[in-house]
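Case study.
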Amino acid sequence: MVVAERAGAADEEAAVAPVWVVVPAFNEARVIASTVAPLVSAGYRVVVVDDCSTDGTWAVLETLPVIRIRHRLNLGQGAALQTGMEYARRQGAGVVVHFDADGQHDAAQIPLIVAPILAGEADIVFGSRFIRPHDARQVPRSRRILLRAGRIFSGLMTGLWLTDTHNGYRALSARALSAIRLQENGFAHATEILDAAGRASLRYVEVPVTIRYTPYSRAKGQPMSNAVNIMLDLILHRFFR
Amino acid sequence: MTLIQPILVLLVALGLLFYQLKGRSRLLDRGIVFSIAAAGVILIVDPQLSMKIANALGVGRGVDLVIYLGMTGFAFLFLLIFSKLRALESQITSLVRTIAIQQAVDGAQTQPPPAAPAGKA
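After joint prediction, the assembly is written out as follows.
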């Protein structure tokens, strides 16, 4: 695809500050190409971490102009993010954005989410579905109740009270990148990030984002019952680290 | 002596033998396992002893005391194994991560040949 164009855009971007986008992917062969296309054409450095998919995601990645990294074992989303962040950090990334592979996130919102970091105002930026009423209305009702509960739980565990703790859309500065090492391989990493941010006293802000709920993303998303598992992981994390 | 007593003693002895042959060999471990086995044998041979200890501790029956101690022992063992598992998991994670990063391929540079050689071992 449009290699020359892409390279030009990347150079332009690099002059400002290289923005890296880390996309953890597990069995996303159907959508991964369309998810990364707008990221590539916007000139971001895109790192896709294939968490040992079994549906041919890797084969699709081999045809895309992105950096591809493959876990030989399935470790979980938190682990995939950490691998991507680790790689980006070693390459000298200034800003890293977490971006879902299932098409829930809108690439056009990346400039908004990295702005506080580029401006030097924050080390970590959390996307939130609950700042603007019209974003919140996009969230299915059952999800909304669960997320509210997750917010309270995370707040109690970490002392950081965000409006939307379990939003996968975030941006991290180089400083946040070196302060945060995710050890929770599963989905408990969302709260773990808050915890680490609190401990390292990173400056954080929330930025409104719109999350697209498609039938695909909802089918791929976490079943509600997983909330209990995540909670258990977090409690155990407290006692076993 | 009832029939169950020699059977139980034999089982404990077999367990101990198996451990000594196949298990870990740190002196402390051996000591702990050996004393647990010895205590087991003593309690089997002299059931009255556990009764006496139980009564002294305010527990009704000797068997109850053994069950309580056994339960806490199992709980402790469970936690031990669990933390071992987590340590193992994090070791595997860092191993997988190291390999993954070493073998990362920058598709933006190896493109466009669509059938680019997959840069893996």
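Observations recorded in class. The first strand of chain B starts at residue 105 and ends at 106. The beta strands of chain B are 105-106. We will return to this complex in the next lecture.
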